[in-house]
Amino acid sequence: MQIDFHHATTYVVARLAGFPQPQAATVAHASQYVDDATCAGMIRFDNGALYSRICSAHKMVDPKNADALANHLVWLPFHFLPGNDGLAEGLNPIGSFIDKLVCRPDSPVARKMVRQAIIDQDRPYGLHRLGVVMHVYADTWAHQGFAGVLHKVNEVENAKETGSSGVFTKGISSFLNDILDGAIPPLGHGRAHILPDMPFLKWKYRNGRRETVERDNTDQFCQAAEWMCRAMRRYLARDPFADVPGIPSADMNRIQDLFTRLIDKEGERRHAAWIRAIEEEPFSFGPERISYVVKGPGSWKAQALGSDADKMRYRWDAAFMTSDWKNFHDALQAHRFSVIYDLLPGFGICAA
């Protein structure tokens, strides 16, 4: 998924779940920032204080980024949550270890991840962690069938569009050949490029096991939005098992309409259209104006550090301790530790 879903759709779903506007904005910003936090390392301040950050994304389609491509500490916990083949704790799929690693929509692994975020919500970074978790949870639908490791299961061959978007004038296979040119290894959905991320696309392909996989992105994205809403309602109820409703039908129709109507390869352009729709074609919570600033003045990093430029040292400001940027990076650390050292081992998965 791209910024149109991870930011704009997530914001809409948070508001429909009952979050006030400022909190919904924090959750949505954190959700999208997972894709934009590509830098790691030590932050140094002029008073001697230090802060260590981790990254939650790499540029998957950059073949020069070989070391990053192999970084399981990024792909597994943040983008391709292992699904244990949809089985509960203590159960193993028939097959090899890779069957435990393939991402599955709304898997028992994913549900337990969501429950833990609800349980731990009283942390200072609770809302930011919810945003991170909503990113990962949503991606279990978009990234289903792919694994966050280098493996032939991630191969994509004979890709064809089964819908009628008209975006790929030469066909999907030609698009992939022009973009990839055989240079991208089978990690995650790298061989499928942006095809799993387009809300309007209906397509099929043959994976590395010679299986034909048919995908209806619109239906899968609507499912993701529905279950994210239920998860966020449970967060507000402070009960990970609460019986809660999903998205009201009229609002779901609006979401589905935007998914199918905004036919464009570029996620940024679809995002801009979502921003306009939220303000001009209101959902049931009314017209609202939202934005996402990833760099420069107004960005979380600039607000926390006084600048978004990479510097040897930053001027210390006590407000850093409660900044969105620090809370977000704290949330990344907490999420990664929870997934790798608590969540996955419970399903017999040791992969990072």
Provide an overview of this structure.
- The chain is mostly helical.
- The two termini are 23 Å apart.
- The chain has a three-stranded antiparallel sheet.
- Helices cover 46% and strands 7% of the residues.
Summarize the structure in short:
The protein has 352 residues and is mainly alpha-helical.
Give the key terms:
single chain, 352 residues, mainly alpha, three-stranded antiparallel β-sheet, two-stranded antiparallel ribbon, 13 helices, globular
Write the layout of secondary structure elements.
Elements: H1 3-17, H2 21-36, E1 41-44, E2 50-53, H3 66-69, H4 72-78, H5 98-101, H6 108-119, H7 126-142, E3 157-161, H8 172-180, E4 202-206, E5 212-216, H9 217-237, H10 249-261, H11 267-280, H12 300-305, H13 324-346
Antiparallel strand pairs: 1-2, 3-4, 4-5
Mean pLDDT: 92
Radius of gyration: 20 Å
Instruction: Give me the secondary-structure category.
Output: mainly alpha
Q: Count the DSSP helices.
A: 13
Helicity range = 40-55%
**Unreliable stretches:** none
Largest sheet report: 3 strands, antiparallel
